[in-house]
Amino acid sequence: MSDTALSELITYLEHVNADVKRIEAEGEVALAEGGQTAFQACLEKKAKLLAGLAENSWVLVERLDDEEAEDVARRLEAFSMSASTALRIGSVFFMTALLYPEDHKPGEPNDLETYIEELRARA
């Protein structure tokens, strides 16, 4: 595996995760102010960002060794498919739950952060 390619992928995923956290924070503010429509718009923005994750990271994934690229592509596609499903059915609950396991507790890493750490351990 190319260390440079993996490092660039990790950096990209960290930026996506930061965007997700920013969007979630904006959504929480909107909800606290009574703006259900604004909250839903934030969740849709989050889901769209994640729905494009596999496609938007493809150039970086291609640069990994074949076996590693396959594993990474499969994992990123799973994130994207969940987000696409949430958008298709229009479920605010599903969009809120994207990246969070059922037993998630505040302060724990989300699934993307956990995956970034897995990639970092491989580097």
UniProtKB/TrEMBL annotation:
UniProt name for this protein: Uncharacterized protein
Species, as recorded: Pseudodesulfovibrio mercurii
Lineage of producing organism: Bacteria, Pseudomonadati, Thermodesulfobacteriota, Desulfovibrionia, Desulfovibrionales
